[in-house]
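Thread: "does anyone have the structure for this chain?"

Original post by V.I.:
We have the sequence but no experimental structure in hand. Need at least a predicted one for the grant figures.
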Amino acid sequence: MIKYAVKVKRYLVFAGDTYYPSGGWRDLKGNFGSKREAIKFADNLVKSDAEPWQRGEWYLCEWSHVIDTEKGEGSGILVHEGKISP
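Reply from O.Q.:
Generated one for you, tokens below.
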């Protein structure tokens, strides 16, 4: 088993495909200190005209969610939802 530590920032970006989601933490694509950065990254994951470097190493996704880990109860609160653009 490989163990590693990642310092998680306030905003988590999850994204994937509707038909084949990885599920849970495997859909985590990034974490950010600012809401604006997280939403911009999440939107680029679902924009078909986004340059590959804007998505990092990730492929085009069908959906994205930004979670604020400091609000809500337990698992955080959804602050942004994106869907693939035509």
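V.I.: this helps a lot. Residues 35-46 form the longest helix (12 residues).
O.Q.: and The chain has one helix and four strands.
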